[in-house]
Amino acid sequence: MLDNPVLDRIVGFFEADVLNLYTSHPDKYELDTDYFEGILKTTEAYYNKLELSGRENEYIGIRLGYHSKTDGTLCVVVVRSDLEDIPEVEQRKWIPFIVDKSCLAQVDTRFKMWYDRYIEGSWEVESGPKKRLSHILEKINACCKTLVGEPLYTAVPDKSVIFPISQNSHAYEEAHQKLYGFLIDSLSKKCLLDFASLRNKPILEAENMKPPTLLRHVFSELDKHSKLHTLLAEVSKQRSKPSHGGRDAAKESDAFEDFCHDLEVANEAYEELLKLIESEFSVSSENELRRHEIMASLPKIIEDANPRASICQATRMKGKTVEKVWFGEREDIKGVHQSEILCVKFTDGETLAIQTGSNASDPKFSRADIKPDEFSVDFALTWVPAASNKR
User: Fold this and answer.
1) Residue 77, Cβ neighbours under 10 Å: how many?
2) Last residue of one domain, picked from the residues 296, 329, 355
3) What confidence tens digit (pLDDT) does each residue in 208-263 have?
4) What span, in angstroms and rounded, lies between the C-alpha atoms of 195 and 217?
5) Cα dihedral angle (203, 204, 210, 212), rounded to 10 degrees?
C-alpha cells in the first residue's frame, strides 16, 4: 500500500508528537482519537472568539490516522487537503515533524482500516473500541432508565478520552486517568441502590460503599475476579499513579497498544453486564436506546397552556379507544394560513379534528425583516359529539 504513488498526493506522515502542540492548549483545540482514527479541531468556544474578530479562517479541522514506524513508535497520517486549508503559520509547525515513508513499517492494520474507511469510502470497517464502549454503556444506561429511572453512568467516554500520543508509561497512565473519570467517577450510586431493591438484594452498609464495590454486590454474578472488576481495578491502579504524585520515571512502553487492549477488555466486560440485564428483565437494549433517544429529542414543555386554550380539550381523549384516523392538507380558507388537519374517530362515536392556528394575520408580519421567533402556532381542537342514537 505504501508503494502506491497516489498515496503521496493524498496523505502525509508526521511524528505523533506534533499533536502535543495542540493538546497543550485545550482552550483552543480538541483532539478526539480512537484505535485507527482521530480528528484535531478548533473548539467551539475558541471558534466563536475567532468569528467575533473576523478570523474564521484560523479554524483548524484535520482528519487523522495512525501508522507504525520501524522503530516501534507511532506517527500520524494526515489528509493533505485538510493541512493545506489551515493558516500558513500553522502549516509551518508541522514541517519539523515530517516522517519519510522509508521509516514506516510495511504493514499496519490501523492504517489499512483508516485508509479503507476514509480514502476508499468503505463503512464495513468496524468502529474503534472507544466508540464501541460508549455505545455499550449508552445501551446499559437506556435499560437502566427504563427499569429504575436512572442511568448507570452519568457520562460515557467521549472525546476527552484520547489514546496515548507517546509510547511511554506516563502517557498510558494519563489515558487511564481520563477513563477513570467515566468508568468510576460517573458510576451512579443511586442507580445501583435502586437496582439492589429491584433485584431484592439486601446489602449491608450499601449506603457507605463506594460505587464499584456496590456494583459488585448488586450484580454478584460478576465477582471481583470477573473481567469487569479486574478492569475497574486496573483503571484505578493506573489512574492513581499520576494523581497521587511521586510516580516512577517514565519508561518506554507500547502505551497505545496496551490502552487499546484495555478498551477491548472493557467492551467484553460491559457486554457481559448488558446481557445479564437484558436476560433477567427481558428488555431489548437496542429498543430502549432508540426509545430514549427519541424521547430526548421530543420538544420540551416549559409552561402549562392557558386553561382556556383549545388544546386543553385534548384531555377528553383519556381512556378512549381509537377506531379510525385520517389526515391531510386542509382546504384553503381566504385570509387564513394553510394547515394540515388530523381527524380521529373513537369507538364511542365521538370525533376529534386537530388543525393549527397561528398569529400569521398580525399586521407586524407585513415587514420584510420578519424573524422566525415572532411567529406562534397553536392547535385548534374541534370535538364532534357522537350521534344521539350511539350514546
Assistant:
1) 27
2) 296
3) 999 999 999 999 999 989 999 999 999 999 988 776 666 788 999 999 999 999 99
4) 11
5) -30
Alpha carbon of 330 to those of 1, 310, 343, 386: distances in Å? 61, 18, 11, 23
User: Please, are residues 318 and 348 in contact by the beta-carbon 8 Å criterion?
Assistant: no
Secondary structure class of 34 (helix, strand, coil): coil
208 and 184 fall within a common domain? yes
Domain boundary among 229, 264, 296: 296
Q: By C-alpha distance, which of 183, 188, 180 is closest to 147? A: 188
Give this prediction's pTM.
Answer: 0.86
Total domain count for the chain?
Answer: 3
Q: Report CA-CA distances (Å) from 171 to 19, 24, 77, 174, 241.
A: 13, 14, 20, 5, 11
The grid coordinates of residue 209 equal 460503599
The residues facing 30 across adjacent strands are 41
Contact 122, 116 (CB under 8 A): yes
- Which residues span the domain enclosing 367? 310-390
> Contact, 311 vs 305, CB < 8 A?
yes
Instruction: Tell whether 145 and 289 lie within a shared domain.
Output: yes
Verify that 78 and 140 share a domain, yes or no.
Answer: no
